[in-house]
C-alpha cells in the first residue's frame, strides 16, 4: 500500500522534521497556512480520526503529548490543533495527522 505520510516516516519522501520518537513523527507542512504549521502523525498507518479504536488510541494521546512538548520548545503558547477526517472535511492525505497552526489570529468557526 502506498501512503505519502508512511513514505515520509520511512524517509523515502524527504521532509523538514520537527520531532521524532519511536511512535510519532512531526514535520513542517509543505504548504503552510500560518507562520508556524507542522503536522504530527503516528508512525503506524491509521487512516483518519475515524479509524481510532481502543487498540490504537494510545498513540493519539502520545501525539498530544508531543504537541504540548514541541510547542513549548518553540515558545508557542497559542495554537490550533486540527484533524480533518474525510473528503468533505478537507482531508487530502488518508493517514491520521494533527495540524498545529500558530503565529496569527485564528477565526472561528473554521471554513
Ligand atoms: P489534510 O488536507 O489531509 O488535512 O492535510 C494534509 C496536509 O499535508 C496539507 O496541509 C498539505 O499541505 C500537506 N502535505 C501534502 N503533501 C506533503 C508533502 O509531501 N510534504 C509535506 N511536508 N506536507 C505535505
Ligand atoms: Zn500511511
- The proportion of strand residues reads 15-25%
Q: What is the CA-atom radius of gyration, in angstroms?
A: 13 Å
Mean pLDDT: 98
Note the overall shape: globular
Number of helices: 2
The main sheet comes to: 5 strands, antiparallel
Unreliable spans are none
Bound molecules: guanosine-5'-monophosphate, zinc ion
Task: Please give the number of β-strands.
Answer: 5
End-to-end Cα distance, whole Å, is: 32 Å
Helix share bin: 10-25%
Q: Give the SSE string.
A: HEEEHEE
| Widest sheet, order of strands | 1-2-3-5-4
Task: State the oligomer.
Answer: single chain
What structural category do the secondary elements indicate? alpha+beta
Describe what this molecule looks like in 3D:
The protein is α+β, with helices and mostly antiparallel strands. Helices cover 21% and strands 22% of the residues. The chain contains 2 helices and 5 strands. It has a 5-stranded antiparallel β-sheet with strand order 1-2-3-5-4, covered by helices on one side. β1 (17-20) and β2 (24-28) form a beta hairpin. The longest helix has 16 residues, at 58-73. It is globular and about 40 Å long. Guanosine-5'-monophosphate (5GP) binds next to β2.
Give the structure's gist in a few sentences.
With 111 residues, the chain is α+β, with helices and mostly antiparallel strands.
Tags for this entry?
single chain, about 110 residues, alpha+beta, 5-stranded antiparallel sheet, 5 strands, globular, binds guanosine-5'-monophosphate, binds zinc ion
Amino acid at each position: 500500500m502506498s501512503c505519502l505520510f508512511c513514505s515520509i516516516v520511512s524517509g523515502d519522501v524527504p521532509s523538514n522534521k520537527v520531532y521524532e520518537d519511536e511512535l510519532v513523527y512531526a514535520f513542517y507542512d509543505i504548504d503552510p497556512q500560518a507562520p508556524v504549521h507542522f503536522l504530527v502523525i503516528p508512525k503506524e498507518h491509521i487512516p483518519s480520526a475515524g479509524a481510532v479504536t481502543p487498540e490504537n488510541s494510545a498513540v493519539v494521546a502520545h501525539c498530544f503529548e508531543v504537541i504540548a512538548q514541541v510547542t513549548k520548545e518553540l515558545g508557542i503558547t497559542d495554537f490550533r490543533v486540527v484533524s480533518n477526517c474525510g473528503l468533505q472535511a478537507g482531508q487530502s492525505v488518508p493517514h491520521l495527522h494533527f495540524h498545529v497552526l500558530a503565529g496569527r489570529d485564528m477565526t472561528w468557526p473554521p471554513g
